[in-house]
Write a structure and sequence with these properties.
The chain is of the alpha/beta class. It contains nine helices and eight strands. 39% of the residues lie in helices and 14% in strands. α4 packs across α9, α6 runs parallel beside α7 and α7 packs parallel to α8.
Length: 259
């Protein structure tokens, strides 16, 4: 999460006293903030932090996927070619704050202004959480959506409603969703939203356009939701699937003509 300046200063002071290697991913903080004397190895994204941590622990991190394969690039280009002229904007409907912040960081780095109910800067905030403005990413785990309701990782009802609401806007070109697996999450997160995804794509087609839906899945084969099945359901619904929020966010950049 983005740290407060005072908190970050206290952390750096503490890190300088440690002999153990420290890797930090502070979303929204420029790498130039950290000097060599801070004792911190800075990671720009969660993906990068994981690879650095595995390496520091003596393991062998997998190769970094920093660009798309030729086939992925062709698919993204085909998606863009099917759009109507009025389709311009991204709508991200995310289950929690961490990926919401990371997506904003990646999209901002590509030169895309993002509005959010959990923005890095007040000027990019939404007047109302339920009303998107141009390119918008919403944290559905925000307190506004949680009063008397389960977290969207556990129950997708609120996200489903938001998908159907956003689908009424003919200017939406890209819909981005994240799916988080594990023992504290819905046992079928994709199943809860797939009908709404299909409906959103259908409405766009009826208007003479084509909605690109991007999804990231955070999970492993050991999770109870069946990672392969969740991915299969998304792909059968015409969704572009990535196993990383960072890569999914980069795909959104490409689909918006950036990056």
């Amino acid at each position: 999460k983005p740290p407060a300046v005072s908190t970050l200063e206290r952390l750096i002071k503490r890190i300088k006293t440690l002999r153990k290697p420290v890797i930090g991913c502070f979303l929204g903080v420029d790498s130039g903030y950290f000097t060599a004397s801070s004792g911190l190895q800075f990671a720009c994204t969660i993906d990068e932090a994981v690879r650095m941590a595995v390496a520091a622990a003596g393991g062998k991190p997998g190769p970094a996927q920093e660009d798309f394969t030729h086939q992925e690039q062709e698919t993204l280009a085909q998606e863009m070619a099917l759009r109507s002229p009025e389709q311009k904007y991204l709508r991200g409907i995310l289950a929690g704050g961490t990926f919401c912040y990371q997506s904003q960081q990646i999209l901002r780095s590509a030169g895309i202004r993002i509005r959010s109910n959990s923005p890095f800067e007040p000027k990019d905030g939404l007047e109302h959480p339920d009303r998107s403005i141009e390119n918008t990413i919403v944290d559905m785990g925000d307190e506004y959506y949680m009063v008397g309701k389960p977290h969207p990782m556990i129950d997708g009802t609120m996200r489903k409603r938001r998908i159907l609401l956003e689908s009424q806007d003919p200017a939406m070109a890209v819909l981005y969703l994240d799916f988080i697996l594990g023992y504290n999450a819905s046992l079928d997160p994709v199943g809860e939203l797939v009908d709404a995804i299909r409906e959103a794509k259908h409405l766009s087609n009826q208007r003479g356009g084509s909605l690109s839906v991007v999804a990231s899945i955070c999970g492993t084969e050991a999770d109870p939701q069946d990672l392969a099945l969740q991915e299969k359901m998304l792909r059968e619904a015409g969704v572009l699937v990535y196993h990383s929020n960072a890569m999914a966010s980069l795909a959104c950049c490409r689909l918006l003509g950036k990056g």
